[in-house]
Design brief:
The complex is a heterodimer of chains A (178) and B (179). With 178 residues, chain A is of the alpha+beta class. Chain A contains two helices and ten strands; from the N terminus they run H-E-E-H-E-E-E-E-E-E-E-E. Chain A has one domain: Immunoglobulin-like. The longest helix of chain A is centred in the first third of the chain and has 24 residues. The radius of gyration of chain A is 38 Å and the shape is rod-shaped. The mean pLDDT of chain A is 90. Chain B is α+β, with helices and mostly antiparallel strands. In chain B, the strands form two sheets. In chain B, strands 2, 3, 4, 6, 7 and 9 form a six-stranded antiparallel beta sheet that branches. Chain B has one domain: Immunoglobulin-like. Chain B is built from two helices and ten strands. The chains are: A alpha+beta (178), B alpha+beta (179). Chains A and B meet through strand 1, strand 2, helix 2, strand 9 and strand 10 of A and strand 1 and strand 9 of B.
Chain lengths: 178, 179
């Protein structure tokens, strides 16, 4: 009988030890997730340097040559536009028209863009107008793309009386497409 | 089941509307301005062609006829002046130098300007030149390459115009004028 009791005790002891080890092996773990969402809207930025240009036609100097040629060219690379965009974009230009001693035609102001991705024939001199004209575009994003421009103004001995003629040109960069 | 289908349609519609609004709102644009200033001074330009004209009165040929007529006409359209100006202008002429066997009078040299539009002061027909500026053409606004074909005539006198070479320099001046 004593031997039987002893066996029972041993059995309980073994069960207890095994149970404890099972409880130990069942380590817990838990998981959570974090989501980062970045929404990037179409974005563009237009920079400009040397935006204000002036030319003076001086008698007995460059004036006669310019009138005979029928035009005066302004300094190259003035202005220079800098395009940044993260998607398809287009760059447009429009003129305010001239102020001055008479209503000089807005079409007498020409522009050429010697940069990349020009459009609308503006890689060569082309007349500006008072409505928007596309001068450059691209179907992807660009970073710091330079658009060196140059102005040219048509001259006419019979029309262009002495005085100061001014025009403001507005450049607009817009993202486009889907 | 019908309720589930209705919810699904509503959800899809909302999704589409929100998406479209996002796409529409999302285009960006940026603007810069540039100013161009052109200062034009009064300017004019005078061109001349066939400026040197020579005539020889040959005895037993042109000479007698010319002396009898009292004058000799030099070639037409010599010189031809070309006027360009971007405002009101005037063109003047004067004798600046002359030489010869004797001091032939300045007024013996006559000029006419056959431009049809802007000749003044009677120079549309022969008129004597002088040693001071005389206005021969003018206009109240700009012109481009306006041609002024001229012709000289020299008065002759059997009694005064001894043989020899007579030379005269005429100076033409184009000037802008007025306000």
């Amino acid at each position: 009988m004593k031997k039987g009791t002893h066996a029972i005790i041993w059995s309980f002891l073994i069960i207890f030890v095994v149970s404890c080890s099972i409880v130990h092996a069942a380590d817990d773990s838990e998981e959570q997730v974090s989501t980062v969402t970045l929404t990037i809207h179409p974005s563009c930025q237009l920079g400009i340097v040397n935006q204000d240009v002036t030319a003076t036609l001086v008698k007995d100097s460059n004036s006669e040559t310019a009138f005979d040629a029928g035009y005066v060219e302004f300094e190259p690379d003035k202005p220079t536009l800098i395009v940044d965009s993260n998607k398809a974009w287009k760059l447009t230009a429009k003129s305010s028209g001239f102020t001055g001693p008479y209503s000089k035609q807005s079409g007498d102001l020409y522009l050429k863009d010697t940069g990349a991705n020009t459009a609308g024939g503006f890689s060569e001199y082309k007349a500006l107008s008072t409505s928007e004209q596309e001068i450059a575009s691209y179907n992807k994003g660009v970073s710091g793309e330079s658009h060196p421009c140059q102005y040219k103004v048509l001259l006419d001995w019979e029309k262009d009386i002495p005085g100061t003629y001014e025009a403001t040109i507005t450049y607009t960069l817009s993202t486009s497409g889907a | 089941m019908k309720k589930v289908a209705y919810s699904l349609v509503l959800f899809l519609t909302l999704f589409l509307v929100v998406n479209c609004a996002c796409i529409n709102a999302a285009q960006d644009s940026d603007e810069q301005v540039s100013t161009i200033t052109l200062v034009v001074d009064p300017a004019c330009q005078l061109g001349i062609t066939d400026e040197a004209v020579t005539e020889t009165l040959v005895r037993d040929a042109t000479s007698e006829t010319a002396f009898d007529a009292g004058y000799v006409e030099l070639d037409p359209d010599k010189p031809t002046l070309e006027v360009s100006s971007n405002k009101t202008w005037k063109l003047t002429a004067k004798i600046t130098n002359s030489s010869g066997p004797y001091p032939k009078q300045a007024k013996d040299l006559m000029l006419k300007n056959t431009n049809p539009d802007h000749v003044v002061n009677g120079f549309d027909v022969y008129k004597s030149l002088a040693r001071h500026d005389q206005e021969i053409a003018s206009y109240t606004s700009g012109v481009r390459g306006e041609s002024h074909p001229c012709q000289y005539k020299v008065l002759l006198d059997w009694e005064k115009d001894i043989p020899g070479t007579y030379e005269t320099t005429i100076t033409y001046t184009l000037a802008t004028s007025g306000s």
